[in-house]
Write a structure and sequence with these properties.
The complex is a heterodimer. Chain A is an alpha/beta fold. Chain A is built from 11 helices and 15 strands. Classes of the chains: A alpha/beta, B mainly alpha.
Chain lengths: 304, 277
C-alpha cells in the first residue's frame, strides 16, 4: 500500500525525516507512533504530495509519489494536522465544496455522498450553523467525514481523535475498525500509546526523524521470559522455586520462567494455591521508551 | 474548481461589504456635489466631476475615476493576497490539494474568481453611480446624445450618442479590469510566497504606493513608462473624440507583461513549494 525507501526531508539545516523505510501493507491497521516533532506529520505530508522529499522514493497504492500523485489521491482519504474548514460556512456546505473541488464525484449524487459521510461520523443531524460555532470534536468529525467522501481504499489520519471526549474516541475507533473490516487500509499517526495499542495491528515508531522500529504489535509485545504470580502461599513458592523469584511484592511474585503453563502445573503439583498467573509481556510503552531517546519538545539546559 | 471558487466568493459576506464600500464613495461625493453645486476647479479633483453637474449620465465615468486610484486596487490586493495565503492559514489549502485539485488549476480558479470579483465590483459601482447621477443631477435635456465635457476632451462640445457612451463605458470596464489584474498578479504572487494574507496584501499595496509616488517624480522619469500604475488613468482617453489609443495600448501591453511575468513566478513558486500548514 505504502512503501518508502530512504525517504529524507531537510528544511534548511534541520532534518525533519531521515532515511525512512516505511512499509504499510494492504489491509493493515498501521500505527505511526512518536513524540511531537519526531517527523510523523512531515512524513505524512510527503506521502500525500504536499511536501516534496529531499531524497528517497515513495510509492503509494503502487504508484510513485509525487509524480503520479493525482492518480493516487482520489483513492486516499486523509486528515492532516486537524481539520481545515471554511469557518463562515455550515459543515454541509463545506463538504459540498470539497466534494465539488475534487474529480470523480457527480453532482447528482453529491447530496447522498455527503449525507452518507456525515452519517458515518455521527453528524447526521447537523444544522445550518457555521463551522465557526462547532466544538473541536465536531470539527474533527467533520474533517473525518471529508476524508470519507470518496470511500477511499487508504485512510491516512494524523491525530484523528484530537479534541474528542472518551466516548467520541471510542466511536471513531469503532468506525475505523468497521472501515478496516470492509477492506480499507488505515495509517494512523498519534503520540498516544493507548490509542495505537487499542486499534493497530502493526506499529512504526519514529524518533527525531528516524523510523526506529517497525513490526507487528504482537511481535513487539514479546514475552519477557517472566511470569507474574499471585498466590497466598508466597513464602512456600519462594522456598520451592529457589532463586528463580526475581521480585516479591506481598503475595505477588515475579518469577523467571519461560513457560507459564509448566510453572502452573509445577505449583499445583506442589499444592500451592494460585489466584492468578500470567506470562509477562512487554508493554508498548516499554518498547517505545526503549526505542526513543528523549521528548523532542523538552529543552535541556546546557551542561555546566 | 472555478465553480467552487465562485461559490466561495459569493457566499462570503466580505465580497458584498467591499462592493458596498466601493459604491459608497461615489455616492458620498455625489451628495456633496449635488447639495453644494461647487465643481472642482478645472484641472483639479476627479475627472468628469464638473461635467456631471450638467449631465448625470456621465456620473458612472466620474465614479470610476474616484474608485480607481485607491479603493479598487486596495480591495483587489486584499482579496488576491488572501487567495492562497488565506487558504493556507485556514488549513484548507492542504485539503484542496489532496482532494486532489491540481496546483495549476487552483491558481487559475483563483485568478478567474478575482476577475469575476473585479467585474462584479465595477458593475455595482456603475449601476449605483448611474442611478445616483440621474437622481441627483438629472439627465441632459438634449436626448440626442451626450456632450463630452470640456475638461476632458480637447475639443469641447463634441456630442456622442448613448450607444457611443455605452461602448466607451464597456471599454473602460475592460481596461480597468486589465489594470486590476496587474494588481491581482502582484498580490497573488506574494500570496504564494507567504502564508500571511495580510503580508501579501501589504506587499502588493507597498508596490503600488511606490509606483504612484515615482509616477509623479520627475527624477524618476527614466523608469516611469514601466511603472505598473503609470497608465491606470489612460481609460479617460476613451472619452476623447476621436479616441486617443496610444496610452491605452501601452497601458494594456504593460499590464499584460506584468501579468505574464508575475503569474509565471506565482505558478513556478507554487508548484515547487512545500505546503506545511
Amino acid at each position: 500500500m505504502i512503501i518508502t525507501r530512504d525517504l529524507t526531508k531537510r528544511y534548511g539545516p534541520t532534518t525533519a525525516v531521515r532515511g525512512v523505510d516505511l512499509e504499510v501493507r494492504e489491509g493493515d491497521r498501521y500505527g505511526l507512533l512518536g513524540p511531537n516533532g519526531s517527523g510523523k506529520t512531515t512524513l505524512i505530508r510527503m506521502l500525500l504530495g504536499l511536501v516534496f522529499a529531499t531524497r528517497g522514493e515513495i510509492e503509494v497504492l503502487g504508484l510513485p509519489v509525487p509524480r503520479r500523485v493525482r492518480e493516487v489521491l482520489p483513492q486516499v482519504g486523509a486528515l492532516v494536522e486537524g481539520p481545515g474548514m471554511y469557518p463562515h460556512l455550515p459543515g454541509r456546505t463545506n463538504l459540498d465544496l470539497f466534494d465539488a473541488a475534487g474529480p470523480g464525484g457527480g453532482r447528482r449524487d453529491r447530496r447522498r455522498r455527503v449525507d452518507q459521510a456525515l452519517e458515518r461520523v455521527g453528524l447526521a443531524g447537523i444544522d445550518r450553523r457555521p463551522v465557526r460555532a462547532y466544538s473541536l470534536g465536531m470539527r474533527q468529525r467533520l474533517g473525518l467525514a471529508a476524508a470519507l467522501l470518496r470511500t477511499p481504499r487508504l485512510l491516512i489520519l494524523d491525530e484523528p481523535t484530537n479534541g474528542l471526549d472518551p466516548r467520541g474516541i471510542r466511536e471513531i475507533r469503532d468506525l475505523l475498525t468497521e472501515l478496516n473490516d470492509e477492506g480499507t487500509t488505515v495509517l494512523l499517526s498519534s503520540h498516544l500509546l493507548t490509542e495505537i495499542e487499542a486499534f493497530c495491528s502493526r506499529v512504526g515508531v519514529m524518533d527525531s526523524g528516524r523510523l526506529v522500529l517497525q513490526d507487528d504489535l504482537a511481535a513487539l509485545r514479546a514475552p519477557t521470559g517472566r511470569v507474574v504470580l499471585h498466590t497466598p502461599d508466597a513464602d512456600r513458592v519462594v522456598a520451592l522455586l529457589d532463586g528463580r523469584v526475581e521480585a516479591r511484592d506481598g503475595d505477588r511474585l515475579t518469577v523467571r520462567h519461560q513457560a507459564p503453563d509448566d510453572l502452573n502445573a509445577e505449583l499445583v503439583t506442589a499444592g500451592v494455591r494460585v489466584v492468578e498467573l500470567a506470562g509477562e509481556r512487554r508493554s508498548l510503552e516499554q518498547v517505545v521508551l526503549e526505542a526513543t531517546t528523549t521528548s523532542s519538545d523538552r529543552v535541556e539546559g546546557g551542561t555546566a | 474548481m472555478i465553480r467552487v471558487e465562485l461559490a466561495k466568493l459569493f457566499r462570503r459576506p466580505r465580497t458584498y461589504v467591499i462592493a458596498a464600500l466601493l459604491c459608497a464613495l461615489p455616492f458620498i461625493v455625489a451628495v456633496f456635489l449635488a447639495t453644494t453645486r461647487i465643481p472642482p476647479p478645472p484641472g483639479q479633483g476627479g475627472a468628469f466631476l464638473s461635467a456631471v453637474l450638467s449631465n448625470g449620465a456621465l456620473y458612472p465615468a466620474a465614479a470610476m475615476a474616484l474608485v480607481l486610484p485607491v479603493l479598487l486596487p486596495v480591495s483587489v490586493a486584499v482579496l488576491a493576497g488572501d487567495a492562497v495565503a488565506g487558504e493556507a492559514s485556514a488549513g484548507t489549502l492542504r485539503y484542496l490539494l489532496i482532494r486532489p485539485v491540481g496546483r495549476t488549476r487552483l491558481l487559475v480558479a483563483k485568478l478567474v474568481s478575482l476577475v469575476v470579483f473585479v467585474l462584479f465590483a465595477i458593475a455595482t459601482v456603475l449601476v449605483t453611480s448611474y442611478v445616483t447621477g440621474l437622481a441627483l443631477f438629472g439627465a441632459e435635456a438634449d436626448s440626442t446624445g451626450v456632450t463630452l465635457p470640456a475638461d476632458v476632451t480637447s475639443l469641447s462640445g463634441v456630442t456622442i450618442t448613448p450607444a457611443g457612451l455605452a461602448w466607451r463605458l464597456l471599454a473602460t470596464v475592460a481596461y480597468i479590469t486589465v489594470s486590476m489584474l496587474g494588481v491581482a498578479a502582484i498580490a497573488l504572487f506574494l500570496s504564494t510566497v507567504t502564508d500571511s494574507a495580510l503580508g501579501a496584501a501589504m506587499g502588493a499595496l507597498a508596490v503600488l504606493v511606490v509606483s504612484q509616488v515615482l509616477v509623479t517624480l520627475d527624477a524618476a522619469a527614466a523608469v516611469r513608462p514601466y511603472l505598473p500604475t503609470r497608465y491606470w488613468l489612460a481609460w479617460i482617453d476613451f472619452f476623447r473624440e476621436p479616441v486617443l489609443w496610444r496610452d491605452i495600448e501601452r497601458g494594456a501591453a504593460l499590464q499584460l507583461v506584468y501579468l505574464v511575468v508575475l503569474l509565471g513566478a506565482a505558478w513556478a513558486n507554487f508548484m515547487t513549494r512545500d505546503v506545511k500548514n
